[in-house]
Amino acid sequence: MATKIITYDELKANGSKQSIWLLIHGKVYNVTKFLDEHPGGDEVILAEAGKDATEAFEDVGHSDEARSLLTDMLVGEFEKDGELKVKSATKSASSSAAVNTAVQQGSNLMYFVPLGLLGAYFAWRYYSSGSV
Ligand code: HEM
């Protein structure tokens, strides 16, 4: 049986309590009926409805049993070059910008450490020469 390809628009269209689809590891699942049975509650699933829930799903560290439940809810595979990939690309771009800021802040600190050591050295010389 050929796997159904789910588009980004289809995924987004199933983001309400009446019909909830989740994208997890490139596959789309219909979790509408599972909502009331979820041991982690319905709110966490509703928050991810119609979106890529891979990160949220993995952050919890779901058991193998939880993973095996997914097979019954499979709708199809997510389109390969979907918009979510574009979204994650912009996400990584912004996080590398954050790294740049962190590096900049780090290099500011790099000036103070040697300056502080130099100051300490001269203070030590001043005091030790005065006491002789
Ligand atoms: C269709 C997808 C999902 C399935 C089949 C599923 C299934 C389960 C199962 C069976 C458990 C019990 C513990 C375990 O066996 O790991 C559980 C717990 C939990 N799930 Fe999910 N889950 C899904 C999606 C999500 C999502 C998207 C979130 C979002 C954050 C989430 C959050 C949690 C939390 C917080 C718990 C822990 C509850 C507790 O220990 O009190 N789950 N889930």
Secondary structure layout:
Elements: E1 5-6, H1 8-13, E2 15-16, E3 19-24, E4 27-30, H2 42-48, H3 54-60, H4 64-73, E5 74-78, H5 83-131
Parallel strand pairs: 1-5
Antiparallel strand pairs: 2-3, 3-4, 4-5
This protein binds protoporphyrin IX containing FE.
Protoporphyrin IX containing FE binds at residues 22, 29, 31, 34, 38-40, 44-45, 48, 53, 56-57, 60, 62-63, 65-66, 69-70, 73.
Q: Which compounds are bound in this model?
A: protoporphyrin IX containing FE
Major sheet strand order:
1-5-4-3-2
CATH class of the largest domain: Alpha Beta
Total DSSP E strands: 5
Q: How many domains make up the 3D coordinates?
A: 2
> Spans of 5+ residues with little confidence (pLDDT < 50)?
none
- SSE series: EHEEEHHHEH
The average pLDDT value, as a whole number, equals 84
Beta-strand fraction estimate: 5-15%
Individual helix count:
5
CATH architecture of the largest domain: Roll
Amino-to-carboxy terminus distance: 93 Å
Structural class: alpha+beta
Largest sheet properties: 5 strands, mixed
Q: What Rg do the Cα atoms give?
A: 27 Å
Estimate the global geometry from the Cα principal axes. rod-shaped
| CATH topological fold name of the largest domain | Flavocytochrome B2, Chain A, domain 1
Share of helix, binned: 55-70%
Annotated CATH homologous superfamily of the largest domain: Cytochrome b5-like heme/steroid binding domain
Q: What would you note in describing this structure?
A:
With 132 residues, the protein is an alpha+beta fold. It has two domains: 5-80, Cytochrome b5-like heme/steroid binding domain (Flavocytochrome B2, Chain A, domain 1, Roll); 93-132. It is 60% helix and 14% strand. It has a five-stranded mixed β-sheet. Strand 2 (15-16) and strand 3 (19-24) form a beta hairpin. The longest helix has 49 residues, at 83-131. The protein is rod-shaped. The chain starts with a strand and ends with a helix. Bound molecules: protoporphyrin IX containing FE. Protoporphyrin IX containing FE is lined by residues 22, 29, 31, 34, 38-40, 44-45, 48, 53, 56-57, 60, 62-63, 65-66, 69-70, 73.
